[in-house]
């Protein structure tokens, strides 16, 4: 971690990013990101739309290749792994997509079974059913088990998306705008779910959000992403008491403009 | 992958011609890699048998109605329209073998392939394209599964296996249509008709047609999957993937037809 950021954590880093660059043709999205995620920690990444938050976590999950820099997950540098090794590492990560990304040809049960039966081929029918019902119970949507994604609301889709990643018992969770476009009450439910997941499954998480109320209840640390760099990194109070213009803008929007 | 998508989705319009040519070749290179990947993953476990069977079923179901209709009508119309020349020589008894040669050697494989390109190819392009733009393919990837195996290999295998069956079926309904017309005019019995129809058909004819169907199926499957799997630019990209899949596979089917006819004729 770069020296100008007054943040230390003695726990082992599960994700370490050093000097990460990524651009798409002329569009320079990430310009030297330094970020660490420690065991058991929830980090919220704040940033304006288009600042590259989704790109950042897609690089960590190996969905996009970095142009430059080091991204290691569990001490393995992800862009050096081959497909098999990467797939094995990905079993330890859960990725909740901004859009939910449920498989729309399959119902909820089949969506949840999909990763499970393909990764643990020895499981019997009953064990699979139990696992499916368990995670659905955890996200509070057991009643939707036979519904198709097209029959679910936006918030339900996100929660099913989270359930689908939980079924593999990940150690790291990525939430891409878990509360984006969702009403405040469901928002609170999802925030509670994120906290519950952290405790029950003992995960470390990177949460992308615009929503500071979400951040406040789920966060251990906030990182502000602006112009391709992490401009501020610290606890909720540290970040919002600072003079960082982006931090101020987010704070004002969430807590003052709404009054 | 980024650069090759440009050419699929029509961004090359404003680019200088040299760049377009370069893009075309990088595109060919990507397709070649895609086909290699298909063969590599088709022969390595895990096998998605259940999905392959489901796809075969869907594809057959999707195109059965229209193939029945087109095959039958082609049989009737082709017989009716070819009647005059042999009739002038009083040789209408040649009609069954004439029609069956045309159907088995050329019409049935082509009709089936073109219908499949329109119905199944566009379906593959649209399905994979929309899965791609809604991050479903990425979601499969991050959950430690292999989307290529589940989505592409199963579809390409399914259409490759389904095509010969559909083609055989198209031959059958085409001959039934033809029989209807011949029976109406000449009162030929069914057994005589079948006897005459298959009198001139050789093993090579049947083998060549089955082989063609396999190849056309494979072509449609690869074109649709490649375009869908690499679709971009939101919902517009999905439509383009489906559309381009049909155009490209029809084009390739005609080229393959011409080449195979040359080879098969030289073997007769
Ligand atoms: N696959 C891609 N190809 C080309 N450009 C991309 C790709 N993915 C993202 N970008 C570009 O990278 C930039 C950052 O995108 P990203 O999706 O990470 O934004 P974001 O911070 O997640 O925004 P939002 O809050 O709206 O989700 C955008 O300008 C986008 O156009
Ligand atoms: Mg995003």
Oligomer designation: heterodimer
Order of helices and strands of chain A: EEEHEEHEHHHEHEHEEHH
Helix content of chain A: 25-40%
Spatial order of the strands forming the largest sheet of chain A: 6-7-8-3-9-10
How many DSSP-defined strands of chain B? 0
Mean pLDDT across all amino acids of chain B: 89
Biggest β-sheet of chain A: count, sense, barrel? 6 strands, mixed
Please, how many domains of chain B?
Answer: 2
| Number of discrete helical segments of chain A | 9
- The Rg value of chain B, from CA coordinates, equals 21 Å
Strand content of chain A: 15-25%
The proportion of strand residues of chain B reads under 5%
Number of helices of chain B: 10
For the terminal residues of chain B, how far apart are their CA atoms? 44 Å
First CA to last CA of chain A: what distance?
37 Å
Roughly how many Å is the radius of gyration of chain A?
18 Å
Pattern of helices and strands of chain B: HHHHHHHHHH
Low-confidence stretches of chain A: 1-6
Number of DSSP-assigned strands of chain A: 10
Average pLDDT of chain A, rounded to a whole number, is 86
Q: What sort of overall outline of chain B do the alpha carbons produce when their principal axes are compared?
A: elongated
Layout of helices and strands:
The complex is a heterodimer of chains A (259) and B (268).
Chain A: E1 13-24, E2 27-38, E3 42-46, H1 53-60, E4 68-73, E5 76-77, H2 83-90, E6 93-96, H3 108-119, H4 125-139, H5 154-166, E7 172-176, H6 184-201, E8 204-208, H7 212-218, E9 221-226, E10 229-234, H8 236-241, H9 245-256
Parallel strand pairs in A: 3-8, 3-9, 6-7, 7-8
Antiparallel strand pairs in A: 1-2, 1-4, 4-5, 9-10
Chain B: H1 2-8, H2 17-42, H3 49-82, H4 84-88, H5 95-133, H6 136-142, H7 147-186, H8 190-199, H9 203-229, H10 234-267
Helix pairs in contact in B: 1-2, 2-7, 3-5, 3-7, 5-7, 5-8, 5-9, 5-10, 7-9, 9-10
The structure holds adenosine-5'-triphosphate and magnesium ion.
Adenosine-5'-triphosphate binds next to β2 and α1 of chain A.
């Amino acid at each position: 971690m770069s020296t100008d950021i007054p943040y230390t954590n003695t726990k082992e880093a599960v994700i370490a990013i050093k000097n990460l660059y990524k651009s798409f043709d002329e569009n320079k999205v990430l310009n030297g990101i330094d970020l660490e995620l420690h065991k058991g920690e929830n980090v919220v990444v704040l940033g304006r739309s288009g600042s590259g938050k989704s790109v950042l976590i897609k690089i960590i999950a190996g969905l996009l290749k970095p142009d430059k820099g080091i991204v290691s997950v569990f001490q393995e540098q992800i862009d050096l792994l081959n497909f098999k090794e990467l797939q094995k590492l990905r079993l330890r990560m859960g990725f909740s997509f901004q859009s939910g990304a449920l498989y729309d040809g399959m119902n909820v049960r089949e969506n949840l079974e999909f990763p499970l039966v393909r990764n643990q081929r020895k499981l019997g029918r009953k064990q699979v059913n139990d696992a499916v019902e368990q995670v659905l119970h955890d996200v509070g949507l057991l009643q939707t088990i036979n519904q198709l994604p097209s029959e679910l609301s936006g918030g339900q889709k996100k929660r099913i998306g989270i359930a689908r990643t939980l079924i593999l018992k990940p150690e790291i969770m990525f939430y891409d705008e878990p509360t984006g476009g969702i009403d405040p009450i469901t928002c609170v439910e999802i925030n509670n779910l994120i906290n519950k997941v952290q405790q029950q499954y003992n995960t470390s998480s990177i949460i992308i959000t615009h929503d500071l109320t979400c951040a406040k209840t789920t966060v251990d640390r906030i990182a502000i992403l602006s112009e391709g760099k992490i401009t501020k990194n610290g606890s909720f109070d540290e970040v919002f008491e600072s003079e960082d213009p982006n931090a101020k803008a987010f704070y004002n929007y969430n807590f003052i403009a709404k009054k | 992958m980024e650069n090759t998508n440009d050419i699929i989705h029509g961004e090359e319009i404003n680019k200088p011609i040299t760049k377009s040519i370069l893009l075309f070749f990088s595109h060919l290179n990507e397709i070649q890699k895609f086909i290699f990947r298909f063969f590599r993953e088709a022969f390595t476990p895990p096998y998605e048998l259940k999905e392959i069977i489901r796809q075969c079923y869907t594809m057959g179901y999707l195109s059965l109605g229209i193939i029945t209709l087109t095959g039958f009508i082609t049989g009737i119309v082709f017989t009716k329209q070819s009647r005059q020349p042999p009739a002038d020589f009083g040789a209408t008894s040649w009609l069954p073998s004439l029609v069956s040669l045309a159907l088995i050697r050329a019409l049935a494989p082509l009709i089936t392939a073109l219908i499949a390109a329109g119905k199944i190819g566009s379906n593959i392009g649209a399905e994979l394209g929309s899965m791609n733009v809604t991050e479903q393919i990425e979601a499969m990837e991050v959950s430690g599964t292999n989307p290529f195996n589940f989505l592409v290999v199963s579809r390409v295998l399914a259409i490759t296996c389904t095509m010969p069956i559909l083609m055989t079926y198209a031959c059958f309904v085409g001959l039934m249509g033809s029989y209807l017309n011949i029976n109406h005019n000449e009162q030929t019995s069914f057994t005589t008709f079948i006897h005459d129809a298959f009198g001139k058909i050789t093993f090579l004819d049947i083998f060549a047609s089955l082989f063609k169907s396999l190849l056309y199926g494979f072509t449609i499957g690869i074109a649709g999957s490649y375009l869908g799997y690499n679709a971009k630019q939101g919902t517009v990209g999905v439509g383009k993937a489906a559309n381009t899949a049909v155009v490209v596979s029809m084009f390739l089917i005609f080229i393959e037809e011409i080449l195979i006819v040359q080879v098969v004729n030289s073997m007769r």
